[in-house]
Structures are given as structure tokens and as C-alpha cells.
Amino acid sequence: xxxxxxxxxxxxxxxxxxxxxxxxxxxxxxxxxxxxxxxxxxxxxxxxxxxxxxxxxxxxxxxxxxxxxxxxxxxxxxxxxxxxxxxxxxxxxxxxxxxxxxxxxxxxxxxxxxxxxxxxxxxxxxxxxxxxxxxxxxxxxxxxxxxxxxxxxxxxxxxxxxxxxxxxxxxxxxxxxxxxxxxxxxxxxxxxxxxxxxxxxxxxxxxxxxxxxxxxxxxxxxxxxxxxxxxxxxxxxxxxxxxxxxxxxxxxxxxxxxxxxxxxxxxxxxxxxxxxxxxxxxxxxxxxxxxxxxxxxxxxxxxxxxxxxxxxxxxxxxxxxxxxxxxxxxxxxxxxxxxxxxxxxxxxxxxxxxxxxxxxxxxxxxxxxxxxxxxxxxxxxxxxxxxxxxxxxxxxxxxxxxxxxxxxxxxxxxxxxxxxxxxxxxxxxxxxxxxxxxx
Amino acid sequence: xxxxxxxxxxxxxxxxxxxxxxxxxxxxxxxxxxxxxxxxxxxxxxxxxxxxxxxxxxxxxxxxxxxxxxxxxxxxxxxxxxxxxxxxxxxxxxxxxxxxxxxxxxxxxxxxxxxxxxxxxxxxxxxxxxxxxxxxxxxxxxxxxxxxxxxxxxxxxxxxxxxxxxxxxxxxxxxxxxxxxxxxxxxxxxxxxxxxxxxxxxxxxxxxxxxxxx
Lengths: 439, 214
Description:
The complex is a heterodimer of chains A (439) and B (214).
Chain A: E1 8-9, E2 15-16, H1 21-28, E3 40-44, E4 47-51, H2 55-65, E5 76-79, H3 89-105, E6 109-110, H4 119-125, E7 134-137, E8 151-154, H5 157-166, E9 168-172, E10 176-182, H6 191-202, E11 211-215, H7 217-220, H8 224-232, E12 241-243, H9 248-261, E13 278-283, E14 290-292, E15 300-302, E16 313-316, H10 318-321, H11 324-334, E17 344-347, H12 352-360, H13 363-370, E18 373-374, E19 395-398, E20 414-418, H14 420-429
Parallel strand pairs in A: 4-5, 4-7, 5-6, 7-8, 10-11, 10-13, 11-12, 16-17, 16-19, 17-18, 19-20
Antiparallel strand pairs in A: 1-2, 3-9, 14-15, 14-20
Chain B: H1 7-10, E1 51-58, H2 65-68, H3 79-83, H4 94-100, E2 103-106, H5 118-125, E3 130-133, H6 138-147, E4 150-153, H7 155-160, E5 166-170, E6 175-178, E7 183-186, H8 192-199, H9 203-213
Parallel strand pairs in B: 1-2, 2-3, 3-4
Antiparallel strand pairs in B: 1-5, 5-6, 6-7
């Protein structure tokens, strides 16, 4: 009877209701058994992350607080990845400023160029992110780590500074939307297509302040790389968290990293009768390769409907799609082919490790022989920083995450977003194309 | 099917009431004794008696952080340098408009995109006193409060106020009054927790207080 009323007792005999994975992770970080949606909490954080753009501001603010040391030199993670290798003198000054902080504070997890990667590909790869953790990062795509069953979200530099000092930050417990992905994916379709389709469905503020919980058999069958891609773009629907509960694939992904780092983790699942503000079922059998047209990620269309759109540049990389799966797909399509002479194709492996593995597998050779540029890891072109800026009137198709006005360069340039398969096929044909047209 | 009906859930997460005292000792006022280590964490912006009267610059839905401050200028943290490029890719005329109008009114999802705190900093350093929007993107909203930029969600006001209208916002009474159109809008309460952050003069000063207690 208690269950019917959705009232249950926890281990201390307190009456509670069923909860989502997000409520449970947040509760575990403020020593509670149950949290209401909308409740404001002060929660312990497991990782506090900053990069070369947000960290200088955070360090400035940290110094105003007037304490000497960060709360834990192992839990503050710093990755200079946006304008690095330093693109100009000002960027170099910013990185120098961070580096001084790193050495003064003896920050253990600082990743200098040469060992680094794009932060959201790097942290999971390094085994720093684990299921059940609560992570904040001064980068909006921090939500990527939800793919490991962690609650992770982006914050600004002031929040980061306070968390560096105290080890705590405040949250409002968010409502959750449950997405159930049924069926099987069509050929070449990846997590990028699922998430673009989803953002197209709910809009760029469709999950504002909410957790997006991705479930269903298609998610169960999805690779870890594709899961990272999906959670990465939760912010593009306004989401606070994108989250996928830990399963066998997650545990397999973590096995060696956990052993190597001698770490353990806690797994949380949503209760079967947890409350969601909305449940959306999506039939993956119907999802074609997706493209988001300028200037919103929600402006989606099927790639095959856009074959008239000519392009000047292709970017394959970023925290969204710079992982092994993405490079493998691009290499399969570009193998023994040449990119169109009018197209600049820039491929950016997201980490040094991915770069090396792609080299060993022959993908880098394939890319170079096809006429692509292969770059050291950087966020570079994704945010119009460097390494592939667009001129007025130019158009790119990119595996990155945003296509706002001026995102990749001139305010009158255009960015179309896609997964790696459409980007690689488009590089060959010089217009938006699907892999079927070239393979 | 309307997937966007969730907007009602988020419209009122931060509001101001009549009896809210968060402006009494907070940093919304132009208080010279209000403390001081957090330069840009201080609001002043010529707000007197908790009433803001100014003209409006009106923008649309989904104003993203890339148009508020393009990433090509993120190689600095200097608020004045950032302000010089604020809204540059959206509105070439912003620098002129802001001389006459110091309240931004916009649609849904203001500040969507990046977590760059440079975005509210650039707006604040442009001498904008206040942003009213139908809704705010989560990270921007939080960043704005943290650095001391006043942000107020109000769907009706944001819908009906026009470009260059003159409006009066009374923070103590919780009222937006459109002088040009002679229309009033009620705005609602800030959770105590947020009030404490604001009354401390921003999040850094709040943290100093918390650390002092420990």
C-alpha cells in the first residue's frame, strides 16, 4: 500500500518517494536519502574542472576569497584546450597565469599540451570521471560525463572559484525528462544523430534547468563514444545534466582505468516508479542521418534533404565528436578517396591517446592521403578560436556542437552540424552528402 | 504535441516580492560602503532607492553567449575590453543604443550556450543595469547573479515591452512599470539562499562569509 502511494521508507526509516538517478546522486553528495525536485542544496563536488578560457577568471576570483590553498589539489582539474597551443600573445598570457596557479597550488591533474586533449574526452579517458560522482566544470559541455552515470554540469568561473575553495557548490534539484530510445539505428547513424534529432524535437530550451535521462534499448546498444556525444549536447537543449545509467558497457569501459587508478565507484539507478516531468519515446528505426542548419542546434533536417548545400570547410573533432568511433567512421568513408579540391577538411583527434591510436590504425595516413589537415588536440575552430576560422559568406559542416551566428568565425559565415559520417561524405563531394553517395 | 509546455516550470524560479528585503542590504543599491574586494561582483549601475528607471533595448529569443561576447575576444578577462565587443555580432548599433537605454529586455532562453562568465561581465561593463527576459539559460542566470548583474524573468513584461520603451522597475515593491505604455507587471520571490548570496555582495563574498564561519 505504501508503494502505491509512492511512499517508501529508506534505510533510516524515513519516508521517501522513488527518485531518479539524478536526485540520488545529488542526495548522496549532501548526506541525504531523499531530495525533492526544486530543493536547493549545498553539495560536495568530486571534480572541479577549468580550462584556459574560464580558469583565469576563476583564479582571479579564488584569490579574492583570501585562502591559500584549493580544497583538494587532486580534485581540481585544469586543461588548457581552447586557444592552445597558444594562438596569440593574449592567450599565451592567460595560459601563463594558469600555469603559475597550477605550480603554486601543486595541482596534480594539470594537462599541459603534449599530454592533453579536449577536456571532455580527456577526463573520462584518464579515468578521472566515475559513475555516481558529482562534477562541475567551467565549460558548458561538462555534462558529457553523464555518459558514465555521473551528474556533471557546466558552471561559470565564480562558481568554480568557490568550489575550488570550499569543495562545495549549491544546486537546485532538477526535474527530469525521460527519453526512451526504442528500435535499432540505421546504417551510419550514431549518437550524434540521436541527440540532434532529440534537440530538434524539444527545442534549444526544451530541457531548460532539467536533467535529460537517456534510456531504452537503443541506448543499451550504443557505444560509449556515442553516449558521450549524446550527453555532451544536453546543454544544447538547455539541460543541466545529460545522464545514462551505468551498465555492462560502462563497466567494461572503466575496468582497466579503475584498476590502474585503484579507484572504486557507486552506481545509482532511477527507481522504476520515479517521477518525470515528461517521458518521450523515440523510435530509432525512423531516424535518418541528421544535420542542424544555421543558426540553432534545434534547426534539424535529414542530411539527404540538404544535398544542394555547398560547403567550404569540414571539421571533424571537438568534445562532441573527436573520439575513436568518429575517426573510424571518417576513415572508412575517406579511405582511398580525395576530399573535394574546394573544401578544407580539418580533422582533430580529441586527445593525444586517440591521435596515437588513430595513427596506429592507419586512419591518420588515410586522412592525409585524402587531403585533410590533421591537428593536435584543440577546441580551436569549434568556437571560432583558431585552426579553421571562416570568412564572410563561407559555410562549414562540422561535427561540433553549436552553430550560432559567428560561432566559427565571421558573423556572416554559416555552420551546419552533423555526425562524422555526413561530415566525411560532404568533404568528398563539396556539398552536404550522405555516406551512401560515396561508399 | 507540444514539448515546450515545461516553460511554466522554470519561469518563476527567481522572482522578487514586495516584502523581500534582499535589496535592503544587498548590492543592488548604489551603496558605497558595500564592500569592495570583488570589483565586478559589485552592482552599482546608478540604482537609487531600489528603483531603476531607464529605456529598453529589446532583443529576441535564444540570445546566445556567442553573440553576447564572441569567443574571439575571450583571450582577455578585462571587463572594459569585453564590453567594447558586447553584442557585436548581433547588433552593430548596441554601443550607441546603450548610451540611451540601459535595460535589456529579451525573449526565451537568454544567455544560452557557453558557460563563459565573460558574457554577463561584458553586459554589466556596458553599463546595462538589468536584463529582463522571458526565461534565462541556466548557466548564464547563475553567472549573472554571481557577478552582480541583475536578471529578472518575467514572461508578460518581456512579451509586451517594446524597444526604447521607458520602464521603471521597483525592486522593493516587486513591480515592473512600463511608463511608455502605462502597464504594470508583478514579479515574485527570490529563495532565501539566493538572497544571502546577493546580500553578501555576490558569490565570492558569500563564500568568504561561509569560510569565516567554519
